[in-house]
Target: GTP cyclohydrolase 1 feedback regulatory protein
Amino acid sequence: MPYLLISTQIRMEVGPTMVGDEHSDPNLMSFLGATKRNMLGNHFWEYYVNDAPRIVLNKLESCGYRVVSMTGVGQTLVWCLHKE
Model:
């Protein structure tokens, strides 16, 4: 998958960071140390890590991902990354 969305809510300095959904590459999620969870009330699964977004972005850069865009939505920050 060449595109990846990661996000964090409220405190970007400490994490956690959401790094994927139930369809994400399991090898990449393992590399990031991500855990799969289903939050109460959600009808989907997500992967998250306790690392701050900066740590996750550094790891993803080492795998060839580059930030395409970043935005804030309410108290959530979202990064879109692409791998060549």
